[in-house]
Request: fold
Amino acid sequence: MAAIVIVIGLKLAPSPNVTSGQVLGGAGPLIVDRAVLGASIYQLFFFDTRLILKRLASAKTTIFSVALLAIAGFGIDRLIGALAGIAAGYAMQEYTTQSGRVKPPVSDSTLKIGPNDVEVPYDELDKVELDGNKLVLFSKRGITRLGMSRGYGAVMSPRLMTIFQKKFKNTESVHSTDASRKQDN
Reply:
């Protein structure tokens, strides 16, 4: 199992995080490499008029690969085997996620939407909030919360402000160091 995890780790490229894709003739979309909705993992594309959530890994892939390999590892070598199975399941899920990513350059017309992908036109959104590492979309259908990695919010905020204008609200939380500094003043 350790060999499988190491081989998968060597094949994985570093994650691109948040990027602004470049297309011929201008600026491309804002691309977020990883956002979590429920137990599914998506790649986000913020175009001029719509948001595309491209599914990279489903809940089944995420949960079953880890659980199945943990159970198999437990049957083979008890606790150490279960831990190795969890590590291998996580590595396989990361490999699946990275291999499914759309690589820039990409444009609104070249991105193909699959059956498990979600398209959200900006006209359907009432409000968009960035709350720390969560992107919250308010629409007539309800509220959708997308979890992202730490630090993505600060990088995305200026670009989201230009995309959504009056619909966008950044609710940056006050960090403990900032709070103590303000309290001292």
The first strand starts at residue 18 and ends at 23. Residues 7 and 91 are 9 Å apart (CA to CA). Confidence is low (pLDDT under 50) at residues 176-184.
